[in-house]
Amino acid sequence: MSDHEDILSEAEREALANVTAPPAAPLKVLIVDDDEQSRESLAAYLDSRGVACVTAGGVAEALQRLNRDRRIGVLVTDLRMAPLNGLELIRQIRESDKAALPIIIVSGDADVKDAIEAMHLSVVDFLLKPVDVEKLVGLVRKELGIK
Fold first, then answer.
1. 15 domain-assigned
2. Which range marks the domain in which residue 83 is found?
3. Mean pLDDT by groups of 10 residues along the chain of 147 residues
4. Which residues of 39-78 are buried (b: 16+ CB within 10 A; e: fewer)?
5. What is this structure's pTM?
6. Cα dihedral value 114, 115, 118, 124, nearest 10
7. Rounded Cα gap, residues 103 and 124, in angstroms
8. Could you give the CA distance from residue 60 to residue 29 in angstroms, rounded to a whole number?
9. Are 79 and 73 contacting, i.e. CB atoms less than 8 angstroms apart?
């Protein structure tokens, strides 16, 4: 270590980093559900709790949003959608450059086989509808790093 590196104290280095580094834009949640009312209600609730959201009505739209918007930090998806379902969406994400994206499934119509398959696809959680919105908010906040 040279003598030049000791010029600034640790506190001064931290203050300088805070001034020179641009603040990171907050991450968003992508909510995917083919039922518009469910999708928009969930987005409105999360927004009211300080969590920014964008929505998609199906798998194709969700994949397009993920490719365009680098600020999506969590995916919340319904399981039963047509023509492609939530499990197919998750498979495609896991095979892409977004493979590490945290994913939460919400479903009103799921069986044990679906839950097991979802867990094999490394989802954060599998919530049944009607969704415990406080639990969902807690999961989303944790995955986004929001206190």
1. no
2. 26-144
3. 63 69 75 96 96 97 96 95 92 95 91 86 92 95 91
4. beebbebbeeeebbbbbbebbeebbebbeeeeebbbbbbb
5. 0.82
6. 160
7. 6
8. 17
9. no
